[in-house]
């Protein structure tokens, strides 16, 4: 069982032992958000490290380094936030993330940069959707404030990823 499943089971056990159903429902949405946000951070860190290893240009390596550094900082914040809310979160990448890593690891040369940059655009679009939903759905002021703050960073990352993708798409294979 991967760490996402372990965290999910821990959260279910914690919530079902709580007698206040309204709080359980709110906590469940917050727990799902923090778990998914954590999965996303872990995956971007993992793929960023891979880009630094396999990237065939300084730009690919630099983008990977930026993703690793900035998402490591976000991961530290999520861990603190989740701990303050008694929410369990994953500690390692999910099986889906491992599959994405393995698929990307098979790419070489310019194809690696193209695939990595496309993946970063897609993942940041997904992250923005997740964070916007969380901001709308949560009633927890700390989670809402954190998600709002991170949304601006994610939008910046998306713009950089799109520029990065455009450059990579114009390279010859």
UniProtKB/TrEMBL annotation:
It holds the Pfam family DUF4142. Residues 29-163 form the DUF4142 domain. Gene3D superfamilies: 1.20.1260.10. InterPro entries: DUF4142, Ferritin-like. Residues 87-109 are annotated as: Disordered. This is DUF4142 domain-containing protein. It comes from Belliella aquatica. The lineage of its organism: Bacteria, Pseudomonadati, Bacteroidota, Cytophagia, Cytophagales.
